[in-house]
Amino acid sequence: MACFAATFAVVVLLGFISVSADKKDACDVYAAVGQSPVLPFSYEKLTSSHVLRWTHNNTIVFYRQGRVSVGKPDDVSAAGSLQLRNVKFSSAGAYRADALQPNGTLAKTWAGRLCVVDKAPKPEVRYVCDFKFSAVNLDCVVAKPEGLAFSWTLDKKTLPGETRQAMRISLNQLKGERSFTCSVVNRASQETSDTVHPACKSPPPPPLLCFTDKTVKAAAAGGAALVLLLITIIVVHTLLMCLFLSQWTLEIVYI
Q1: 181, 192 in Cβ contact below 8 A?
Q2: Which residue, 30, 96, 100, 215, could crosslink 111 as a Cys pair with Cβ 3.0–4.6 Å?
Q3: All domains of the chain, ordered by start, with CATH?
């Protein structure tokens, strides 16, 4: 029984540690490299008599007590939110805001984690006409598709359900000039491709057998020679038959 209780306590403790670690590593605000996010602390009663302190990974990045001694006055809003500018990967981490009463007591606090990710890449729409299946295959090409969500528009209207990187559409839907774009989005930014107008013309009919004049003349000459040869054979055969019949007739008369 004691062993079971000890084991149960260890499991509960490990679960608590795991949940705490997950919460600690969770992101409250996402931003792409180069963006200027605002950390959402808001204390409507904030005045110049309050102490306002912002820390990043326990380092003070803004401090105001009557006047600003760390940071710049325009780094915070009237309600105390922190404006970051042109963030880098090093800007990620834990942020904390504390607003203190003039007597030093805590008026309001906020804590959150900023996660900085790459900006979503600009996609490019490429297409291939598939006349065998009477369709056009479209592909939303990006350098690194991992972690991106895709969407498509047809004539500036979002196509519901089309969330894959590639899509196929019937050629019957391309009557007239139709326009397509694709968009990619991550947790912090979105990019849209240039507009593409697929042009899928029906393939030409199979080419007819064509010959050059030289080939035609050679074939005609060969045909004429063949006809002449056949005529000669027929004439010779006819003459031989006539000669044979004449000789046979004379033999009968003499007999």
Answers
A1: yes
A2: 96
A3: 23-117 (2.60.40.10), 124-192 (2.60.40.10)
